[in-house]
Amino acid sequence: MAQASIGIIGGSGVYDIAGLEHKRWEKVESSFGAPSDELLFGELNGVKLAFLPRHGRGHKIPPSEINFRANIDVLKRVGVSDVISVSAVGSLREHLPPGTFVIVDQFIDRTFAREKSFFGTGLVAHVSMAHPVCKRLGDHIEVAAREAGISAMRGGTYLVMEGPQFSSLAESELYRSWGCDVIGMTNMPEAKLAREAELCYATVAMVTDYDCWHPNHDDVTVEQIIKVLLANADKAKSLVKHVVPHIGADAKACECGCRSALQYALITAPEARDAAMKKKLQAIAGRVLK
Ligand SMILES: CSC[C@H]1O[C@H](OP(=O)(O)O)[C@H](O)[C@@H]1O
Ligand SMILES: Nc1ncnc2[nH]cnc12
Known about the structure:
Elements: E1 6-10, E2 21-26, E3 39-44, E4 47-53, H1 68-77, E5 82-91, E6 101-103, E7 106-109, H2 135-147, E8 152-154, E9 157-160, H3 169-177, E10 182-184, H4 187-196, E11 200-209, H5 222-248, H6 275-280, H7 282-285
The chain binds ligand LNRAV4D5 and adenine (ADE).
Adenine binds at residues 88-90, 166, 183-185, 208-209, 211, 220, 225.
């Protein structure tokens, strides 16, 4: 099986990575079912990466049906330690117009119809989500964006809704009153599962619309989102090209804590742990399940 150190999860409009060397799609099996698609392996400046289109090639899978557990599990299985999520979002703020890139640092999870943990009955774990993204990865993205001439706002709260329908005006206003900056349907439970898998995770959110709250802008439509995404595609690709060598060259030990998230998270007594669960969780939690 091919190996990679960096994982890129591409959202709406991002179904491929241009300019990859030694490019090939490969199927990777997970103990949590089928991931969204095969992984696209390749190299950028000698750094090995694995790309996964979150909705599958051709955008066949809606947000609530994405097998987030399998997606994170396959990335972990091929050796990935750093994951960058590239996602389309609506803006909940006047100062974040369509075309803006936001390096998200907080989430509010309003999803309710998804598997949110690798753990469960027979093997219980509680990881911290106080700081849900990796600051070190955020730093690399910020530097890469500057190099690529892309203006990216550092920090912002992403409200994750269940979807697939867009928000009502009352919901949009409620999220604004909560201090949220952008809205989307996919980064949870993805970020929670990446934390359980001890992967560093960061999100580049690309604003495509003003949702439905802005009095001077039309309510969001898929047509409008695609139009902005197409205009932003080159920026997104350029950002990926610039950030991968930075992360690849970052050999120093990660001090963010993402990679030791499970150290004190398991609460089920060793003798009470379910054997089948332990087997299923080997790739994700083998480090602490010896
Ligand atoms: C196509 S518009 C709505 C869709 O786009 C975003 O997905 P992703 O984060 O994968 O780019 C949003 O969350 C919705 O799933
Ligand atoms: N306004 C919006 N709401 C939810 N998800 C989105 N993705 C892009 N724009 C969105």
